[in-house]
Amino acid sequence: MNSLPVNKQTFLQKLLTVPQYRIFRHLLLISALMLISINQTFIYFNPIYFRLEIYTYLIAVFYFITYLVTGYIHIYYLVPRFLLTHRYGRFYGWFIGSVFLMAVFQALFEEIIKRRLELSFPTLILTRLFEFISNYMLVSLCFAGVVLAVLLRYWITGNQRISQLEQEHLHSEVEQLKEQISPLLLFNTLNSTGIIAGKDPSRASSMLLKLSQLLRYQLYDCNRDKVLLSSEVVFLRNYLTLQQLQTENFNYTLTYEGELNRSLVSPLLFIPFVQEMIYFMQNRNLSANLNIHFSATGKDILFFCYSIPGTEIPQETWLRVIQRLELLYPDSYFLKTGKKG
């Protein structure tokens, strides 16, 4: 889930979330409520029965104030305090009650205006009741739309925040992986080359060359969101070669098939598996051959990493690896761990 930069968001997303558009959001709501108030005034108080004169504006202003107060109560009180805190029952109760109270105030105000102007509306009580219920339902739908717009705003901003946190977490994960690889391997490589430089200069030169390629990949390619699978394979090969040059009784085979230059992956995606296998074997003084195989077929990438003889690493070792996979490839990866039979 990637958050869109502000300049790549749609106009609706900008209108709902960007702080600079806040004044436009309020103006849009106020304009809509004003039009509803004026329309309601001229529909209910038909000019045929009386001359409204100044009362036209007073009635429209009263409707507008009741709508505005009720709307902002929903936006700044009911939604944040009840709906966003998952107290749905209280929210529904306050929602129904506030809209009903507003409708009652409007009905009472209409009666006061009719009596003051001595107006006579030839309608039955049952008809007035149906008018009140229909008006209540319409107003409820209008305020439900306002609530949905507010919820959409919170949902968009929440998703953007979550996406930002995920990106920051992934970046920190990559930085931690780089720190795990560089210092220890750098120290061991330089120490080893210093020891064997006099005895085997070509081997020392090969180690330094592999180390420079390793560090260059970390400094430049790992700053990207995606890298070619072929680059990741070359990085693993250099890493394993350095380990082999420094560690006794350690051998590896790295094979691949498919078009690696057409597949993109997140940087340092496979190194945690290789590191854990090596650390596990070294801590137990195991002599084993590490076998790694890549297969790139279309959009799918198969990665195998196992040792011969087989070793079974505890499941809790892979928890951080699984968390990173969940962030990078949610619901689009399959991980199987265990001892190869």
Give a topology summary.
Blueprint: H1 11-17, H2 22-44, H3 55-83, H4 88-116, H5 125-196, H6 201-219, E1 227-228, H7 229-246, E2 250-258, E3 264-265, H8 271-283, E4 288-297, E5 300-308, H9 319-328
Parallel strand pairs: 2-4
Antiparallel strand pairs: 1-3, 4-5
Helix pairs in contact: 2-3, 3-4, 3-5, 4-5, 5-6, 6-7
Description of the molecule:
- With 341 residues, the chain is mainly alpha-helical.
- 65% of the residues lie in helices and 9% in strands.
- The chain contains nine helices and five strands; from the N terminus they run H-H-H-H-H-H-E-H-E-E-H-E-E-H.
- The protein has helices spanning 11-17, 22-44, 55-83, 88-116, 125-196, 201-219, 229-246, 271-283, 319-328; strands at 227-228, 250-258, 264-265, 288-297, 300-308.
- The strands form two sheets. It has a three-stranded mixed β-sheet, covered by helices on one side. A two-stranded antiparallel ribbon has the order 1-3.
- Strand 4 (288-297) and strand 5 form a beta hairpin.
- Helix 2 (22-44) packs across helix 3 (55-83).
- The longest helix is centred in the middle third of the chain and has 72 residues, at 125-196.
- The two termini are 37 Å apart.
- Mean pLDDT is 78; it is low at 1-7.
